[in-house]
Amino acid sequence: MLQVGIVGLPNVGKSTLFKTLTKKQVDCANFPFCTIEPNVGVVEVPDDRLRQLAQVSASQKIIPTAIEFVDIAGLVKGAHKGEGLGNKFLSNIREVDMILHVVRAFEDHEVHHVEGSVDPARDVETIEMELAMADLVAVEKRLDNVRGKMKAGRTKDLETEEQAVAKLFGAVAEGKMANTIELSEDEEKTIRDLPLLTRKPILYVVNVADGSNLSGWQSPLGSGRPALPISVKLESEIMEMPLQEQQLFLDEMGLKQSGLDRLITRCYEMLYLITFFTSGEKESRAWTITQGTKAPQAAGVIHTDFEKAFIRAEVIDWKDFVALGEGGAREAGKLRVEGKEYVMKDGDVCHFRVGV
Question: Mean per-residue pLDDT for 70-88?
């Protein structure tokens, strides 16, 4: 399961966001480093298509796809040097697939800010500098290694790798994020095994005050950082409501989704994930694959043996499935038979035919 790590300075709302996302109680007391071990929680990806498919199939069970969130303790200035248990926390971030960076934009004199004032842009730069400095050690080591190999004999592959790593070194040495550096396809291939924190996808959650007017909201972090404004306090209160009241509240606010649902969906999109479905009387289920996955590999997500024994895929677009049912879609010619080279599309409803 793919992991999203929640990071940020202490007391910006990380643990409250995690608790709200996962409905899992964690200690989020108002003092730095209350989170020592990373809390982990599994969160379902909201997808109304699955409910509609289950209704058509009269499914006994609905199984959504999910993402794992990890609540990582607050970083502070100097974390890359070990300040505030920094080395341990940075290693936790290195293990996740994506970073959710929570930034405080609300004023509350009862909630201490480690820098003494609220400044989202400054706080983001503090965390990004720590991540970049942690990456600098790994990049410098890789650069020395590559140049050592080149002394023994230059090859085109080594020259390409040296060029890529030198670009990354120049960036992180200045405190820049490695994901802002453009590399060629060949350069990308040479550094895929280099586990850099600042090469991971990052979504910024700007934790705004309860009651903030978000109409026409502009991010205080600049255009280069994908950001979502969310009142973590308000979202926490919404999650305490019964499900029916939650929907009524959202309807009254004119919202199709809660802020949390938008956040989860955005994480899913930024990881380049899509969903295909299987639907029948026993269960309707969502399956996660990366964009560009071919049919045999998608079948292998259901069971590893299915990829090896793949024969064909019978595919119906989810809208046709909901409108006509499986039998009706087949009769109307909406069911397609696809082979091994078929690239899966988001919303495909599939039956995989496999050999024994």
Answer: 59
